[in-house]
Structures are given as C-alpha cells and as structure tokens.
Amino acid sequence: MTARLPRAAVSTAPATLPPPLPGLDPAWSRLVTVPGTPSDSSGGPARPARTWHLLDTAASLTALGVEPVGTLLCVHGNPTWSYLWRSVVAQSLAVAAAGGPAWRVVAVDQLGMGFSERTGVDHRLADRVAELGRLTDELGLTGPVVTLGHDWGGVVSLGWAVDHPDLVVAVTTCNTAVHQPADVPIPAPLRLALRPQLLGRATVVTPAFIETTLAIAHPKLDRATADAYRAPYRGAARRGAVGGFVADIPVDSAHPSAAELDRIATGVAALRVPALLLWGPRDPVFLERYLDDLAARLPQADVHRFEGAGHLLPDDADVAGTVFDWLGDHLPHGTVPTQAGPGLPAGPDLRTDTERTNVTERTDVTERTDVAEPTGDADGPAHRPLWTHLTELRDSDEPALVEMAAPGGTRTITWRLLTRRIDEVAAGLLDLGVRHGDRVSLLVTPGADLTAALYACVRIGAVVVVADAGLGLGGLTRAVRGARPDWIIGALPGLAAARALGWPGRRIATVALPAPARRALRVEHTLAAVARRGAVRLAAGSALPDAPAADAPAAVLFTSGSTGPAKGVVYTHGQLGAVRDALAGQYDVGVGTGLVAGFAPFALLGPALGARSVAPDMDVTAPRTLTARAVADAVVAADATVVFLSPAALANVVATAAALTDDDRRALGRVRLFLSAGAPVSAALLTAATELMPNASAHTPYGMTEGLLMTDVDLDGVRAAGTSGSEGICVGRPAASVQVRIAPLDDDGRATGALTETPDVTGEIVVVAPHVRDHYDRLWRTDRASRLGVSDPRGHRTGDVGHLDASGQLWVEGRMQHVVTTPGSVVTPVGPEQRIERVDGIGRVGIAGIGPAGTQQVVVVVETVPAVRRPGLADPDLAAAVRVAAGVPVAAVLVVPVLPTDIRHNSKVDRARLSRWASSVLAGGRMTRP
C-alpha cells in the first residue's frame, strides 16, 4: 500500500517550451502531442491526448546536411528532466559536424515531469513504459535505436527496449536498477522519503527531494545549472509527479509496480544486444549491488565506474564523450558490425612510419594493423600454471619462505609444508563454497598466510584481489568496494577496516579470534579451520580441479593510485605465468635462488619462480622503515643472492648503513644482483647501494602494475646516461619479448602521432608484451584509452612520456598528465627537474604547470638542504639559480619542507597535487603545506 500524496500532486498544467537556460539550445526543444484513443471493444479505457516536451536533434542534423544512422532515446529519472542530457545532445551534434556517425538524439520529459504536460493522474511504472512506446510510435521511430536511461528513467528505457526488440540495437544506462532483492531493504534515503508523514512534504509541498538530489552532485553544481534543474518544478503544483515517482518505487512484492519491475528485469536478462553500464560509485541511492545485478543480467555489457562521481552522473562525469566513443566502437553505422569484435575507433593513425609506407591504407578501422606481433604467447600451448615450480618442489624439505617478523621470531616454511598448506586451503575453500570465478580479497601482509591463500585461490580458479595497505584507507576502501569480492581473507586490521567501512564479502580470518570479536567482525571461518576442512576432504579422496584455462581471470591487482584513483588491473592465468617467465629469464632467478623481497609483488611471485623467499623485518606499508641491518639479516636467513627493494626502502638502507657490523657487510657481499623499481632511481643511490653490496650487479627495471617488467638498465647504463645529455631518466632496453614504441606529442601535448621507433621523438610510451595485463576492471573507458591505436591485445599505452635514443634505450620524461603546455613549447617535467637538482642547496624537485592548457606557466617546487621549516617563496638568489638551471621559462620558485609523494612507494612526487597547491597559493590562498 502506497502513501497518499497531497492534493497538489494531482494538479494539471499544459506542456510548454522551457525558458532560455544555460547549455540548452532552444532549437532542440519541441512539443509533441500523442493523440488520444477511444475505449476499445474489449472495454479497455479511453486514453486522452498527451503533450510531451522533448529535445530532438532531427532538425539540427538536417541543417548539417547529414542523415542519422540511428536514434539515441534518452530517458531521465526523478527529479530531473531532459536537461540532464544536454551534454549528450551537444556531443552528438559535434560528432556529426566533425564527420562522425550522426545519431539523432531524442531526450524526453516524462509526463508530469520537466516541461511536459501535468496530467493530474498517477503514472505507474507500466504506464510510463507504455506511454513512452506511444510517443515513439507517434515520432515514427523505426530503428536502429539505442536507449540511454538514468535513475528510474533507466528502468523505463529498459522496459521500452524489452518491448521493442525489433528496433533496439544497444542499451546504455547510468546509475539505475531493475531488481530489488527481497532480503535487502531499499536504500536509506528512499526509506526516509517514503515514510507517510514525510512523502508529500519532502517531495511535493517543499522542494526538499529536488534540493537533496542537486546537493549530492560531485563536484557541486554551479548556481545557474542548479536553477535550470529547478526551473520546471517551481511551486508544489508542478511537483506532483516527483512525489508520484517516489511513491511508485516497489518496496515489496505487494506494490502495484512490483510485477512490472519483475517483468522488465526478466526481459533485460534476455537482451542480446551490446550494452554499456556507466556508474557513479558515490551514489547514496543506487548502490553498487544494483550495478552487480545489472552486470549479471547483461554479461555482455561493458562497464565503466567513474571513481569520485555520484548520482547525477551526466553532470559528474563525461558520460556524453564515453557514450559516443562506445557507439563509435560498437555501432559505427548504427548497426552491430558483422565482423568479430567491435573493431577500433576512428582516430589518429598510430602506425609506425614504416608500417604506413608498407601497408595499404584502408578506410575500415577494424582492419588496421598498428603494432607487430611480439614473440611469445601467454595463451599458447606452452603455458605452465603459476604453481608449476611448487608442484615440482612439493617433496622438498628445503626452505621456501622465511618470515623475519613472524610472531615469536623468524619462521621458516619448507616447500613440502607450503604446498601441503596450499592444497589444504584450496580444498577447504571449495568445501566452503568458493567457486571458479569467485573474487577473494586478500587483506594480509606478505608472508606464509598470504602466500598460501593466494596460491590456493589461484589453484581452484578463484580470482584474487590484491589491494595493499599502501593505498591508504580511503584508496583501499575504493579498491575493495570496486572489486566487489565475494570473500575476504584478512588479518585483524583488514577485517576491522572491512567491518567499519562496510566492505563486501564473507569473512575468513587468518588468526583465531574470541567469539565476541568474530561476531563483531562478521568472521565466519579461520584460515586454519579452512585448511583442516580441506585436509579432511583430501584424505577422503577428493581431488583438486584441473588447472584453469590460460585465458581465465586469475587476479585483480591495484595500481598505486599515485596519478589518480587506484585502478584494478585484471591478469589471466596465462599472463601471470608470462610475468613469472619474463622475470626468470631476465634475471636468472629460479629454483634454488635466495630472494630478499622487500617489494610486495616479488614477495608473492617468489614461490612461482621457485625461489627461496624472505620477507625482511619492515612495515610493508612504509618502505622507509627497512634498515640495512634488516636486509643483512634477511640475506643470512635465506642465503640470498638477489635483493629487490623499492627506491624509498633502498634509500633508507643506505642511510642506515653505519649500523652494519662486519658480519652484516660480509653477508651483503654474497648478493650477486639487486633490483630497485617503482620510481626513478638515481645513479648516486645505486652507487651507494653497490658499496654495501660490492659483488652485486645493480639493476633498475621499468614497469608498472599493468606490466611488471618492460625494460631494464644496470648501473653502468645509468652512469653512461648521465653523461649523454639526453632529457629524462634512462630505463634501458626492452626486456625479451617486449616491444617499445612512441606516440609523438602534438603542440597541445597530446599523443596523437603515428607510433614510431625514431630516436629522440618525445611522446607517450607504448609497450607490447605477452605479460601485459588483460584489462582494467570495470573501467571500459580507461581500458579503451590504454589500447587506442594498438591492435594487439597485449599492447598498452603506459601514460608515461619519453623517447627512445639512437641505441634503442628508453628514456622516461614524466607522466602524460604532467606535461606542461606553455605558449612557446611543450615541457616534460623530468629534464628540468634533473637540471635543477644539481643546484647547490636543493634536494628533490617537482615541476608543476598552472593555468589553462596552451598558456600554462612553469612553477618549480623544491626541497632545500637543509630543509625549510615552512613553505614559501624561494629567496631571490635560490630562485635565480633555479631559473638558470631549469632551461625553460619559470614563473615562480617555491620551497617546501617535504614534497608530497605517493603512499605505496613513498617516492613518486605528486605533481598534480603540487599544481593544485601552487595554483592556490599563487592566487593569494594560504601558504599551507602541499
């Protein structure tokens, strides 16, 4: 039974055209009357004529002289109106004017909403779906049609799609839902609005419901835009349908619209057309579970979560650009392409100069060849599972893992014990109901528990989610929620955070907990109990399943978040195996090698390499806590000959070298190879580390979460680079089976040029390798951008900017997003930073661009030696020296006690944060620390 609305909810008013409003061209607006119908012979009710306001680009396309390839039918929700789609309308015309596919956009105001007719009657969900159908009949839509809906307009648009399968070629949605689980309450804001004593007052009598919707935009709407959304709803008499929409939410199976919602949900699951699901995770009403449900019903859907965006997604994020990019990929001519796959979008020709000469030009973008095939194939018949070496060593009593910081002292785990534990945990997880494809979030610090849990999950085909504490609590929360795990295996800190912050997933603890703590943390099992269940199952003769296919997802690894929200990177089993093989081949690390892993990825990959791995005594979330003595102790404990440390950890090892004893130094003398990666490593730091490990070859690999090893350079190479005069940081030559090319920058700092290997051409670094990630998790737009112009599925646009030299070595000059576009040139940051760091009295340096693109000014922010106590303008002499050294025009020089860096590596200077800070303080804001 629904709550009763006040009399104002049944007011009537004719449809009108909207007044002049920002972003809304009056030429788009029209009124359309759907004629009434008399009662039919079966006694069906008569239908009065209804007049709709809608935005329609048909006339604008005619003025452009183009024929539409199809229609994009846009349906708003509550309490918005067609104004929500103004950017989609504008973008459609811009694409058509530029020669792209011309999509007619029809964006309706639902009856009682916007500037459509106030009918004075209730409109249930089934009514709205049918009314939209009568309108499209009146418009004469014949297809192809793509639907785009938001909020409850998403449900209506999908209902229309279900009812018009002959016209629909694709469906797209923004923050909507088609199913409400019976065992889960509707979201709290809606429960509040639906209270009988509040419904009418909050939605009709006052504009509270509208104001709340506008207030949760991210970023906040400017006043003119907010007023435009308010325009059709001024006065209670015009807000009746706002309350009616809320009252029509099916809260349970007895609700009058529940049956229609169920019908639509069932019909959506039967749709076989391409689908795009766009989502704002900061929506307090349409929660992530509704996206999960839609994605399950539309398994063919592409999904993109706009991190940081909320409910008003078309205002919060670039929905318009994303939709038309997607349409260009999937329906370039208004119909689904007959060839396999969607092909590549039209765009810049990114082939190499040689390929452009040797390959006949084609107009069909799906036939372009952009990057030659590399050697090796992650999915070929030679694929070996990640745990191959574990199987080979399962009867060995040699050490596999050494934990230096285990409770009670150093703990050593043999290969026999480790493989048995993995098998038992794997069998126990199966017994609990963990299945192939389930996602398991691992909130455990590196060590035996994490290793056993990770390899057990991978062994049974579950997908491990690895988001380390180095992301910070906020980043970790976004990562875990976005990865939507079915299970969480966690130590106490991770479980406490999961409970406090509402992370999804059933809980398994790595430690035994008292019953009250288990209840409070919602822990169902312990890892030890899971292993015991598995042991019983294996003893009874149950076998573990066959190895998952090479192309099955195996892991979601999260980027550091140093250049924006951390992204989930999906690896298949074949690609993880290729990562293992690439590292083993490059560094001769394998069975019998002792490895000190002060960097989380190597701690996890050690067993896959067959290496004897030791985790040194350190806080893995704070690399600078690692000391020289801790490294020496770890070398002794594992008889290690290989050491892998992050640059921040390596810097602290060098800084604490005075505490080393003679025995420590002799131990470090056994090391034959040490590696440092994750951020640039200077020749001075590598040299200092070599003095501690005099028999070791020093290497610094270049890679990223999307591809852990792309190039490599040793200390001699770094030293030689320092005398070459080239800009940037030399990261060496490509590893085996890796190809590196450059997409040159244009005058606007965009990487639009054809891929090239020509020396000294600066642009975005593009890599191709068998061990590159499969895709980004629920980030269709990000994934598309990382592949644009790269036809090989193993290709990746890194987002780094750099160049190749005449000898084929790669030089990194910064990040694409940190390129500064000044009036006279495009400035990449690393070269000027390096030159400035040579000035006496200066430590680390960060270059920031302030101002509009194309007219940006360079600001230099430096740490001084000794450090200043508070931020401010540099003194005139220091500023003058910086300007001389920079080699580019500098608008201002600022000094800070410490430059901001990323959390995971403590090394990468956050230039984007510096830019925001410098813009603020130079505009007269407070001189706070960045």
Automatic annotation (TrEMBL):
It holds the Pfam family AMP-binding. InterPro entries: AB_hydrolase_1 (IPR000073), AB_hydrolase_fold (IPR029058), AMP-binding_CS (IPR020845), AMP-dep_synth/lig_dom (IPR000873), ANL_N_sf (IPR042099). Residues 1-22, 335-362 are annotated as: Disordered. Residues 395-772 form the AMP-dependent synthetase/ligase domain. It comes from the Bacteria. The keyword Protease does not apply. Keywords: Hydrolase, Ligase. One of its GO terms (molecular function) is hydrolase activity. Residues 71-316 form the AB hydrolase-1 domain. Residues 350-362 have a biased composition (Basic and acidic residues). The keyword Hydrolase applies. Belongs to the ATP-dependent AMP-binding enzyme family. This is Alpha/beta fold hydrolase.
